[in-house]
Design brief:
- The protein has one domain.
- It contains 2 helices and no strands.
- It has helices spanning 2-11, 20-26.
- The longest helix is centred in the first third of the chain and has 10 residues, at 2-11.
């Protein structure tokens, strides 16, 4: 689920993500 969520969060970065730092770095 983390992999699928990673792709989803990349398109729609959520503020309540488990790892905001990781999402911000990917964005």
């Amino acid at each position: 689920m983390e992999r699928s969520y990673g792709s989803f969060s990349r398109a729609i970065p959520l503020p309540f993500d488990s790892d905001p730092a990781k999402v911000r770095g990917e964005v």
